[in-house]
Design brief:
- The chain is α/β, with parallel strands linked by helices and 137 residues long.
- It has a domain at 48-133: 2-Layer Sandwich (Nucleotidyltransferase, domain 5).
- Helix content is 36%, strand content 19%.
- The chain has three helices and seven strands; from the N terminus they run αββββαβαββ.
- The chain has helices spanning 17-37, 80-93, 109-122, and strands at residues 48-49, 60-65, 71-73, 76-78, 98-103, 126-129, 132-133.
- The chain has a five-stranded mixed sheet with strand order 4-3-2-5-6. The chain has a two-stranded parallel sheet with strand order 1-7.
- Helix 2 runs parallel beside helix 3 (109-122).
- The radius of gyration is 26 Å and the shape is elongated.
- The N and C termini lie far apart (99 Å).
Length: 137
């Protein structure tokens, strides 16, 4: 008498546990990395002030002036004319655009005045100066 072996049934389920683990790890990485992306990658020594406003507004542009007087708009080097042209284009898209100026404490004040003058002439109403907090001033 011959024995017949039964073949086990085929399992057609998909195990999504490893997929879920990978997705959760990616979510955690992006949650940690996203705030770091908005930080400025250009090194400047900010002047100190007694208070510091933390501004995280998606409708604002960051203008950085280095100690050498180089002007950056959202991490791109700009001349004053290019800065004016770029800001004009941005203001057409969003008339409520705000600007944050982060000037190195060693830069000439004239460079800051030039940038602020461009912002004023173009009609940017929300202008903030970025400083480093010093509670002892």
């Amino acid at each position: 008498m011959r024995r017949r072996y039964q073949t086990p049934p085929i399992v057609a389920d998909i195990n999504i546990t490893p997929f879920t683990d990978v997705i959760l790890v990616l979510l955690i990485i992006f949650m940690i990395a996203t705030p770091l992306l908005s930080q400025n990658s250009i090194e400047v020594k900010l002047p100190e002030a007694a208070s510091r406003d933390v501004l995280d507004n998606p409708k604002q542009v960051q203008i950085v002036i280095t100690a050498e007087g180089v002007v950056y708009l959202d991490n791109k080097v700009m001349s004053n004319k290019e800065l004016k042209d770029q800001l004009t284009a941005l203001l057409k898209k969003d008339p409520d655009l705000k600007a944050v100026v982060a000037a190195d404490q060693g830069c000439r004040f004239q460079e800051v005045v030039k940038v602020m003058d461009i912002l004023r002439v173009l009609g940017v109403k929300g202008l903030n100066l970025s400083t480093k907090s010093n509670q002892y001033l």
